């Protein structure tokens, strides 16, 4: 059961992944972080390619941990490989790309920043690093997640800050939940949140701060099913004022789900006072296309409280045994995601989003 949460929205600075540069130079390291079969990095382009390969291997390890619940040793090794690869890139960029040294702090800063709590120190989580928060186990899916000495978490995201698997039109800073919630099992979250007054959502088609995803089930051809999250708590800009408002989305589908399901807006909070704390509670039950529950309260007022509607997707049950993976039935349980996920439905440029998110878990009363 998830615990109590405090959510405060603000923004912190970030240094996105650097693209491959035209400048090249000799690497002074041995390239020992490369797996057997890779050649040692000799140029900046080689080092960046090696870093990207190490990141891909780490992603694969993280998927194994999230699916099977094991593989900690392999995950730790993959994290070490990525750290060494990134150090090689940083060293070469400092030599051949002016202003790229970590000592340089002249990079542009986003507008809004989460206010650090007094006496709390923060460190950035590595991709794949696991953390226990609010009674659940999570893993960092992206960079730009700060873990406080008091157990709090700070997320920040702006245009250009995304996961390596995202197209340019998306923005992402997220934790992925390692727990699975089976059909009929309730997912409960309670807490307090505030939205930073400087939050900007210009041009965003969506900005989710909580998601529940159905199991990542594959079809016979090995491709994943196209389905949106079965639940999301979104922030969106008001078309007239540009101020954020909250929206509860709960999607569902029967059959094999050959297309994305229609978006169902189940409730809204049109006037969220920025900079003020609001109480929050939710309960979601995945029905796998059958009757479930979506209930969300803000300041004691129900945005939605429905236990008579279908939730989730049926395809997970259809494909579970029909298309086994590595000889085993596919997962059917849904899972949480926590953080910032924004973007546009189409196009090649991201929206002008500047968002921060801070979570602090509180003990049950």
UniProtKB/TrEMBL annotation:
<keyword id="KW-0732">Signal</keyword>
<dbReference type="Pfam" id="PF14099">
    <property type="entry name" value="Polysacc_lyase"/>
</dbReference>
<dbReference type="InterPro" id="IPR025975">
    <property type="entry name" value="Polysacc_lyase"/>
</dbReference>
<feature type="region of interest" description="Disordered">
    <location>
        <begin position="97"/>
        <end position="119"/>
    </location>
</feature>
<protein>
    <submittedName>
        <fullName>Uncharacterized protein</fullName>
    </submittedName>
</protein>
<feature type="signal peptide">
    <location>
        <begin position="1"/>
        <end position="22"/>
    </location>
</feature>
């Amino acid at each position: 059961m998830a615990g109590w949460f405090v959510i405060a929205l603000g923004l912190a600075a970030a240094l996105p992944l650097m693209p491959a540069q035209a400048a090249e130079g000799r690497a002074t390291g041995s390239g020992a972080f490369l797996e057997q079969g890779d050649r040692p990095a000799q140029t900046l382009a080689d080092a960046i390619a090696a870093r990207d390969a190490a990141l891909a291997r780490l992603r694969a390890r993280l998927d194994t941990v999230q699916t099977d619940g094991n593989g900690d040793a392999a995950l730790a090794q993959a994290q070490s490989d990525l750290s060494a690869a990134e150090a090689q890139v940083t060293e070469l960029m400092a030599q051949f790309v002016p202003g790229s040294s970590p000592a340089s702090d002249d990079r542009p800063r986003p507008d809004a920043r989460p206010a650090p709590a007094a006496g709390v120190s923060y460190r950035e989580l590595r991709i794949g690093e696991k953390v226990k928060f609010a009674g659940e186990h999570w893993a960092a899916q992206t960079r730009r997640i700060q873990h406080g000495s008091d157990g709090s978490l700070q997320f920040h995201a702006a245009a250009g800050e995304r996961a390596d698997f995202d197209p340019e039109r998306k923005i992402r800073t997220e934790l992925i939940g390692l727990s699975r919630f089976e059909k009929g099992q309730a997912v409960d979250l309670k807490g307090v949140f505030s939205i930073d007054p400087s939050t900007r959502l210009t041009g965003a088609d969506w900005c989710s701060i909580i998601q529940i995803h159905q199991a990542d089930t594959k079809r016979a051809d090995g491709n994943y099913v196209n389905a949106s999250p079965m639940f999301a708590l979104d922030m969106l800009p008001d078309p007239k004022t540009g101020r954020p408002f909250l929206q509860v989305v709960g999607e569902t589908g029967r059959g094999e789900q050959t297309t994305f399901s229609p978006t169902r807006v189940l409730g809204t909070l049109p006037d969220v006072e920025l900079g003020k704390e609001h109480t929050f509670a939710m309960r979601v039950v995945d029905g796998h296309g059958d009757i479930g529950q979506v209930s969300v309260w803000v300041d004691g007022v129900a945005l939605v409280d429905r236990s008579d509607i279908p939730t989730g997707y049926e395809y997970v049950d259809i494909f579970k045994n029909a298309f086994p993976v590595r000889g085993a039935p596919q997962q059917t349980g849904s899972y949480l995601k926590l953080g910032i996920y924004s973007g546009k439905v189409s196009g090649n440029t991201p929206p002008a989003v500047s968002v921060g998110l801070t979570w602090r878990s509180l003990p049950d009363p």
